[in-house]
Amino acid sequence: xxxxxxLELLLSGSEExxxxxxxxxxxxxxxxxxxxxxxxxYGDPExxxxxxxHLLVNALKPTARNSEPRAxxxxxxxYRVEKTLIETxxxxxxxxxxxxxxxxxxxxxxxxxxxxxxxxxLLAEELERLLEREPEFNLVLVxxxxxxxxxxxxxxxxxxxxxEIQRSIVKLRQICAGRKIPLVASGRAVNRRRGLPQPxxxxxxxxxxxxxxxxxxxEKTSEYxxxxxxxNPAQGSGSVEYRFEVxxxxxxxxxPFRVSxxxxxxxxxxxxxxxLLKLDRRDAFEKLVEVWSSELGAMSYAESLTLLDLMLLVxxxxxxxxxxxxxxxxxxxxxxxxxxxxxxx
Length: 345
Description:
It contains 13 helices and 10 strands.
C-alpha cells in the first residue's frame, strides 16, 4: 500500500460532499459533515439538540449508495445529575416534514447509553460489534461525550475516570475513522471571563477532534443563532449566523398514507391492544380502528400533524360527536318527561 502526504489527505477530504447539518450557513462554514472526521459541538443545549435532530434526519435519507442508511445515537450521562433523553416528538415531526416515514426511520436509529465512565469505555466494543452486524451506517452521534468526566459517581477516582473517558473517545474515533463514518459529539461549555467559552476537556478534545464549533443562542425573537469555529484545519476559523431549513428530497421513497396508517395500526395492536387487561377495552380499540379507517381522507389532508396525533384527534372528535348525540337524546327525554308531568298535574 502506498503513502499519501498530509496535504493530499486534506484535499481528498475537502472534495467529498459532506452530510448536511440542515443549515446552508453551517454547511458553507464547515463544508458539511464529511466522512472519517470527528466533529465536536458545544454550547447551548437546545441548539445542540436541534442540530443533532437535523443530522439524524439527513443521515437517514436514502442515497444512491444506500437505500436504508442507519445511524447510531450514543447517550452519555449520569441520570442522578442530569437526565439524558431523546425527545422523539420533535424528531418525529422533523421526519414527517422531511417527507420520511417516521416508524421505519426511527427503526434505523440504534441507541447506546452509558451512565458511568466504565460503561462509556465499553461503548466502543459495542459500537464495533454493531457496525460489523449492520454495516450501512452514515453517522455516529455522541451526546455528552466528556460529561461523565465530571458527573461520574466515583468522586475519589477522578484520575481513573478521566483515563476511561479519554480511552473511550480515542477508540470511538478510531472505529469511525476506520469505517469512514463521521463522528459527531456534543458537550457543555466552560465559561471564561474573556473570549469564547471553552468546551469541557478542552485540552484533550482540541488535540483529538478535527473540528470544534461553539453554538450560541441569540435573542428569542431572532430566527438565527451564531456558530463560531474554534478549530477547523480544512476551512479555517470564522463565525456565521445560521438557521435550519427542512427540505424534502426529490424522488424520496415515502409510503402512501394508507400504508403508513396500516403499519401504525398493526404496531398499536401488537404493542398496546394486546397488553390491555380488560376485553371490553380491546373491543373499544377495534371500534376506534373503524372510526380511523372511515376518516382516512381527513387525516391524509392534515399535513401539519403526525399520524398518531391525527388518530388521537379523530378519536377525540368521534367521542365528542357521540357525546353531543347523547346530550341531545337526554334533552329530548327531559322534554317528554316534562310534558307527561304537566298532563298528570
